[in-house]
């Protein structure tokens, strides 16, 4: 039987957070409902951040309230602080994520705190989520390059990944935020991170600005990672990473994984339908 690799769908959050057009909640709900039918185990649908920082995510609670929940799907949300966590809990998120950075510049630009302060802010969020029985993911952004500080040392990534693991994050997602990493640099970064965190607790989160994300996934597969974040239709970017393009497209990751002999549990026809829907949401902007 083919080995399973999870594609963690982040399109409704990472994909849509940068769209200039204010996308109505009903459109987001329709996209999530289609993705639920595609067979994902987890879909990141919401972000409980300041609406002044990311206006597109302001309707997150309404999205969680409006979706048709499939019983085997976990609907996840970003929660940068206790306020965000309380709102996510009230809205019924099944899993939450804190999001840090391996570089100071991005950390300050994205969440208005340096790395050390951000880790202090995350600790009570992770503890509260675990007390509620929720799984917690920890993101590390800028795992090879930072838009403000330039190249990032692998040891800096390993340090933040280890700190998030120690705090209680069950899974660490490694973000190539700018989408300019090469397989060689991803491999070197993983060398350092794998000293701290085993591969079954890591995810690859690769944006695709330079068109190398699928190669970066392959090199990560060779290092034992089996979870990859992707956005249907290749939507997205980060409002605090100028010039960064979308996440690698879920349908492209699915096709590459199948070609490599892995199973994803996804229905390619429904995935194509969702990709079409996602692209239309962007075209209208
Ligand atoms: P701050 O200004 O330092 O926070 O922002 P504050 O505590 O001083 O609050 C400022 C205002 O925000 C206040 O409102 C708070 O009430 C409000 P005011 O009094 O001015 O009217 N506020 C909130 N409102 C709603 N929900 C909340 C919340 N917290 C405070 N949870 C903060 C700090 C973290 C809030 C801010 O910097 C922020 O929201 N940043 C989010 C940035 C973001 O969402 N970036 C995109 C996601 S990360 C990403 O895309 C990377 C990733 O994909 C991985 C990768 O690709 O690398 C994950
Ligand atoms: Mg991202």
TrEMBL record:
GO molecular function term, any single one: hydroxymethylglutaryl-CoA lyase activity
Signal peptide: none
CDD domains documented for this protein: DRE_TIM_HMGL
GO BP annotation list: ketone body biosynthetic process; L-leucine catabolic process
PROSITE patterns: PYR_CT
Pfam family, one: HMGL-like
Pyruvate carboxyltransferase domain residues: 5-272
Keywords: Lyase, Metal-binding
Protein origin, superkingdom: Bacteria
Family per similarity comment: Belongs to the HMG-CoA lyase family.
Entry protein name: Hydroxymethylglutaryl-CoA lyase
